[in-house]
């Protein structure tokens, strides 16, 4: 089963960085096992463009649309046997330690 893993951070993380796992080790382990199909870091929210259509009119906004403390900073597409396996992979991701990781199955 495929899962989209949204990697999010608070604008002011509170975790002790000395306890956080190494991202390069996480990527290498999951790539080698075939569980991470694709992933990448995203540009800053300041580089975002929000696209909306209202009343047939195209509306564009630069930067993030909403004020929020949590920002999506990356993504990974995982191939897992089930949600339990996806959770085990996500809990080892560094951002699970000082941000949050959201798992969502593909429809």
Mean pLDDT equals: 89
Distance between the ends: 10 Å
Report the strand count. Answer: 6
CATH homologous superfamily, by name? Dimeric alpha+beta barrel
By CATH, the architecture is named 2-Layer Sandwich
Largest sheet: 4 strands, antiparallel
Secondary structural class: alpha+beta
Family: Belongs to the YciI family.
Domain YCII-related: 1-105
Protein name: YCII-related domain-containing protein
Organism: Actinoplanes digitatis
Could you please describe the fold and organization of this structure?
There is one protein chain. The protein has one domain (2-14, 21-105): Dimeric alpha+beta barrel (Alpha-Beta Plaits), CATH 3.30.70. A hairpin with a 2-residue loop joins strand 3 and strand 4. The protein has helices at 23-32, 83-91, 94-98; strands at residues 2-10, 36-41, 49-54, 57-62, 70-79, 99-105. The strands form two sheets. It has a four-stranded antiparallel β-sheet. A two-stranded antiparallel ribbon has the order 3-4. The protein has 107 residues and is α+β, with helices and mostly antiparallel strands. InterPro entries: Dimeric_a/b-barrel, YCII. This is YCII-related domain-containing protein.
Structure, briefly:
The protein is α+β, with helices and mostly antiparallel strands and 107 residues long. The chain has helices at residues 23-32, 83-91, 94-98; strands at 2-10, 36-41, 49-54, 57-62, 70-79, 99-105.
């Amino acid at each position: 089963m495929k899962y989209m893993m949204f990697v999010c951070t608070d604008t002011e993380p509170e975790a002790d960085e000395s306890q956080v796992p190494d991202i390069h080790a996480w990527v290498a382990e999951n790539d080698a096992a075939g569980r991470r199909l694709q992933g990448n870091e995203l540009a800053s929210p300041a580089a975002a463009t929000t696209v909306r259509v209202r009343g047939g009119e195209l509306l564009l906004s630069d930067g993030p649309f909403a004020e929020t403390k949590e920002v999506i900073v990356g993504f990974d597409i995982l191939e897992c046997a089930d949600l339990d396996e996806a959770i085990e992979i996500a809990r080892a991701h560094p951002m699970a330690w000082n941000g949050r990781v959201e798992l969502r199955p593909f429809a």
